Amino acid sequence: MSVLDELVAGALEDQQARERVVPLEAIKRIAADAPAPIDARRWLKREDGVPVIAEIKRASPSKGYLGDIPDPAALAQQYESGGASAISVLTEKRRFLGSLDDFDQVRAAVHIPLLRKDFMVNEYMVWESRAHGADIVLLIVAALDDDTLSRLLKLSESLGMTVLVEAHNREEIARAVAIGATVIGINARNLKNLHVDVSTYGELAADLPSNVIRVAESGVFGSVEVDGYARAGADAVLVGEGVATADDHEEAVHALAAAGTRVKASEQRPLSTHEGPYFGQFGGRYVPEALVGALDELESVYTAAKADPEFHKEFARLNRQYVGRPSSLTEAPRFAGRIKDKTGLNARVFLKREDLNHTGAHKINNALGQALLVKRMGKTRVIAETGAGQHGVATATVCALFGLKCRIYMGQIDARRQALNVARMRLLGAEVVEVTQGTRILKDAINEALRDWVTNVENTHYLLGTVAGPHPFPSMVRDFQKIIGEEAKRQLNEEYGIDHPDAVCACVGGGSNAIGVMNAFLDDDRVNLYGYEAGGNGPESGEHAIRFAPGTGEVGMFQGTRSYLLEDKEGQTLDTYSISAGLDYASVGPEHSWLKDIGRVNYSWATDDEAMSAFKDLCETEGIIPAIESSHALAGAYKAAADLKAKGYSNPVMLINISGRGDKDVATAGKWFGYLTDEQSKALEANGAHGTSSDNTATDGAAEQNSTDGE
Amino acid sequence: MIMTAIRTDNVQSNALTGSQVGSQADFQADFQPLGISHRPSPTETLLANLKAKDTPAFIGYLPYGFPDAQGSLDALRCIVENGVDIVEIGLPYSDPVMDGLVIQAASQIAIGQGERLEGVFEAVRTVAQAGAIPLIMSYWNLIFHYGVERFATEFEAAGGAGLITPDLIPDEAGEWIEASQRHGLDRIFLVSPDSSDERLAAVARHARGFVYAASRMGVTGERATLSASPQELVRRTRQAGASNVCVGIGVSTPEQGAQVGSYADGVIVGSALVHTLLDDTGTKVRDLHEGLDALAATTAALSKGIHEARR
User: Fold this and answer.
1) DSSP class of residue A248?
2) What residue spans carry the Polar residues bias annotation (chain A) (predicted)?
3) Within an 8 Å CB–CB cutoff, is residue B159 touching chain A?
């Protein structure tokens, strides 16, 4: 005899004992006099949340004894005040240690729908449920034949009750649908290890008709599971142990309800207006507590600035008069010719010329925006990390403009390959610190900047350069960069009479230029979006910075945010490699990870070879020397063209974001193409920055020095 | 009302639930309970016992796998034998943003030696067997990557008491809070001198074991002098509801230990211990025998300073 058979037999025996005391006719009369049931269907599906059915449960066959519940009514009231939409009361006594007495106590205490959870075997139990004031009853497909199932369903509904029909697998779901169940609970527990697999739930629930309310029934312990079920399309969740055994029942229910609300809120927003801290499962604030105050301050100052017309006016004025915005939108017919030669696709290609901005890249957009916030916060010192040097130059520039003290952290390897930018930053009055710890590239520069920030947070702003890091950086930097796409859209319209591009291509390191050019098009399904990561020597080589290709990145927490991450089997950050310092990063902005997971942006990569070949193509065809970073977008455009062709486009309009100019890369490119001798190349490398991180930063023994530095 | 109308049924149910005691025992015998653990925190018990004796706890940090797997077990045993009450076993991480040069160097050495998270449970057992309370200090990605539930299960089985999370704030700790509740593990979050009262209250509410108060703004590392701010932070953290507040970051001498121990429930020392195992360059391992002798001497001196702080 299976556990279920045993439970059903026991339920029947107990029911018969109760019927001997209160016969069917008597229980029908009591049911008729009971207060009308609540229409629970209206409580189990909402636009703005995932209703929680909180269960009063002392034990279960799968989990054993969970705990005493001396006062079910008090527990139910705590559930109700925590935000439960319905309460489930186990009345099975043999294995679940419940009773109808529990049910009555709860009924008297709360005013939300009540589910009687038992092994319903016959009409008597349905009448009995109603007599006790139940609004919802449970029918278990596995425990009943189709005929009984159908009869009990119809009787329950005729008494005004909602029926939660529980199914475990595809076959049972089909049976539930066939008898006309409108609320189906899916119990996706793996019977071998009792674990719950959200993806199994998703596969099972996918077959349900759209008018059916889907209740995820098993293994909801905390917000992690609610989050997973909500994303998999569950309308409501039923949770027992997770709330019944919590120390603070009200708080436990509240946390679950909040998780559901968060997912629903996220699903209903237009993609382009998503705000942190979370983008789907990504984002957040994985930082030391010491930074929370500064992040909160930044968030509130930014929120206030966003609502202040004066801020926008000043930002717009500086963009126009100092940066030189709008940046041009240049048609590139000869480059389009190369695309046609390679792919056979006859595309019109437009270049968004962020390379024409003051300082030569899109980075100035964000640096300027954040510098205005630094003024508002009253801080006097700015630190920043830089990879290619473009963000460091932009930061040094705005610090010069606003009279702020500036220190730039740069990995030693990056500093050597971007010697000219190191010199530029110093000319602009910034202190450049060459980071010698770790792998000596961008991520290590960020670590040092974070250590500095933790130490000097009182007077220092960390002017993070990309859409990564802890909230509010991903949304805030996106907001400062989205002008790229907004201008391009308008320019296509006004200057070329084109309504929308068919494709947008951008390179993705941290991802700020890509988010910037794509944001205006996220909610326009006609626009195909393509992001290209740094392929280095190719995904199989292990020498790359590809986070999104299968077998490369995994979800992890890195430098303040949850996103895709290149890590080894121990969770240690992997070394990355790219010819382009600006794309050489182990993680990626959380919004990109989300856009990848929901399939809105197609992410692929361009190798060093492909990027350098596209670099030369643009130089030769259009007289524009792009940054090597941007060359990844150009190389990607060939791939995007092939994809568009495969999708049936014949004369598409392609927009490519030229995120920066390539002057800084002339030494690298000259060497790559053999225009410079080794000696000439060497001469162009830095002679070594004068300070190094190990003797000059916020670590051991230098904190005091740093804090005075900032004054 | 129906409640009275069907009283007979209630009476019957109540009579039947009289058999609950028996069922309860059956359940415990037949099924593995997976509910919330209510096992008391050994850390809190120890801190309470020490408090009764008016003595602060000495909490020592060493990274697992440094200078190598076996060497780290010897070093852990050494600090327990020389007076450490609670051990923070650090998990070496490639990007330790809350750590200064000494612990960065030790972490890199350990990772270079092939340190693996799986092995840390051996260190947990070693500390427990030596008679101290084992905590793990880890950047969150390592635990997340290993699997939060898997980590909690194995950590509990090894006799671990709790986890210190330098880059996980309570706001992001949902999965860990739930797993730690299931396994009866301590959740030790940090606070810093500029934490607002609201933040202190949020941390105190979610903490178990103790709250880790950073003595100053900044990363780990030895300091010649300590400011007065930790005492104020300890006071504010207690006021925010924390029952135990221990102070770390920058405490490196017996005198500083005595100073902090006069008001904190525990004194946390890390870099000063790790330092003894490094050579003069501060980046390479010194001879292990010499190192362990130095470690023993440093630990014993700190133990005296801290444990006698209020005499």
Assistant:
1) S
2) 690-711
3) no
Is A455's CB within 8 Å of B196's CB? no
B311 to chain A nearest CA, in Å? Answer: 31
**A547 and A438 within one domain:** no
**Phi, psi of A167, deg, nearest 5:** -130, 150
Q: How confident is the model at residue A121 (pLDDT cuts 50, 70, 90)?
A: very high
Q: How far apart are CA A331 and CA A342, in angstroms?
A: 19
Phi-psi region of A194 (alpha: psi -120 to 50; beta: other; left: phi over 0): left
The answer to whether residue A695 sits within a structural domain is no
Active site residue B99: yes
Same domain, A210 and A119: yes
pLDDT tens by residue, A81-97: 999 999 999 999 988 89
Asked if A607 and A538 count as a contact pair (C-beta separation under 8 A), the reply is: yes
How far apart CA B302 and CA B252 sit, in angstroms, is 8
CATH of the domain at A564: 3.40.50.1100
When the pLDDT of each residue in chain A is averaged and rounded to a whole number, the result is: 91
Longest CA–CA span in chain B (Å) reads 86
Work out how many domains chain A is built from and give that number.
Answer: 3
The reply to whether residue B169 touches residue A59, judged by beta carbons under 8 angstroms, is no
Residue A267's nearest CA partner among A232, A240, A296, A239 is A232
**Degrees to nearest 5, angle at CA A158 with A155 and A160:** 115
Query: Which tokens sit at B288?
Result: 């292990």
A273 is a domain residue: no
Do both A392 and A453 map to the same domain?
yes
CB pairs under 8 A between A and B: 226
Rounded mean pLDDT, A582-607: 95
B46-307, superfamily in CATH? Aldolase class I (3.20.20.70)
Nearest to A384 by CA among A468, A462, A287, A451: A462
Please tell me the pTM assigned to this model: 0.83
If asked whether residues A250 and A115 sit together in one domain, one would say yes
The answer to whether the Cβ–Cβ distance between B100 and A288 falls below 8 Å is: no
Q: Does B216 touch chain A (CB under 8 A)?
A: yes
Domain range spanning residue A111? 3-268
3-class state of residue A639 by DSSP: helix
Are A457 and A521 contained in the same domain? Answer: no
pLDDT tens-digit series, residues A269-285: 889 988 889 998 899 99
ipTM comes to: 0.89
- What average pLDDT does range B205-215 have in this prediction? 96
Q: Say which of B88, B156, B186, B265 is annotated catalytic.
A: B88
Q: Which residues of A are catalytic?
A: 363, 385, 659
A391-437 confidence digits (pLDDT tens): 999 999 999 999 999 999 999 988 987 888 899 999 999 999 999 98
Q: Is residue A509 part of a domain?
A: yes
Cβ contact B192–A290 (<8 Å): yes
For residue range B158-191, what is the model confidence (pLDDT) as tens digits? 999 999 999 999 999 988 988 898 899 999 999 9
Task: With CB atoms and an 8 Å threshold, state whether B14 touches A458.
Answer: no
Least confident stretch, A440-444, A546-550, B305-309: A440-444
Give me the helices (H) in B91-196, please: 101-112, 120-130, 140-146, 148-157, 174-183
Percent of chain B with pLDDT over 90: 78
pLDDT digits (tens, 9 = 90+) for A62-85: 667 777 888 999 999 999 999 999
Task: Give residue limits of the domains in chain B.
Answer: 46-307
Within 8 A of A293 by CB-CB distance, chain B residues are: 194-196, 199
Both A423 and A544 in a single domain?
A: no
* Domain match, A436 and A504 both: no
